[in-house]
Amino acid sequence: TPPEPFTGVAADGKTPLHGMIWRPANFDPKARYPIIDAVYTGPTTTNVPTSWNGAITAGAGSVAQLGAIVVSIDGRGTSRRGQAFRLPAYQNLGEVGLDDHIAMIRQMAARYPYIDADRVGVYGGSAGGYDAARFVLRRPGFFKVAVASSGNHDLRLDKAWWPEVSMGNPDEAVWERNSNMSVAKNLQGKLLLIHGDIDDNVPVTESMRLANALITAGRDVDVVILPNTTHRVAQPFFWRKLRDYFTRHLLDEKPPALPLPDPAPAMPAVGATTK
Fold this sequence. Notes:
Structural class: alpha/beta
Strand order of the largest sheet: 1-2-4-3-5-6-7-8
Strand content: 15-25%
Number of strands: 8
Low-confidence stretches: none
């Protein structure tokens, strides 16, 4: 099923926004599908593919094969559309495009009745991991399931140059307001944190501290620490955990069982001769 570009408006009701929609290969317009937002609002770039090749090779297309509608959206605060469009990100990385994503998903559901806007998931990596956790923590009534990988959940723990491009050097209250730890108590849905133990870009401390904040707040959280793994966690085990998490908690289905390994060859008896 080919991907479809989608144009809607932001939460302000007037700013045009762009997105992309992926459907499963066995798509049935008479069925009802949950929707999963593949998010990355890092304001120095955009996330929605701008070419056919980019759209058909995106990982979002493979996630749709679970039996879900997967979307990508560039809200206000992202780049490549001028200063006024990007300005909402200034000292406000925790809210970049948050309500714009909700507005666009609702517009998609209004156009396509097979989209179930009561079953909404979100996933992302790095700044997108920060976003995925942020979305489910800041809008818990809308986003029900999130998978956040390699997320920079508190910008004060990240390398200095990346946050300061958009954050400048604000006072402590602004840093705290943009921290996922400060809203950990809001969690209502399901959240999976994934991080490599030798992440060379965003320290694993970020996910560990968010996990601790959630536990301290009396909330549930699932954590996977990938051994001997850097910032690039997109390996087969990661994708299996992501797909299984959405299958179980958003589609309410049982994930497929792992194939059994080939049996090991029998060891020869002690004293036996072999040819």
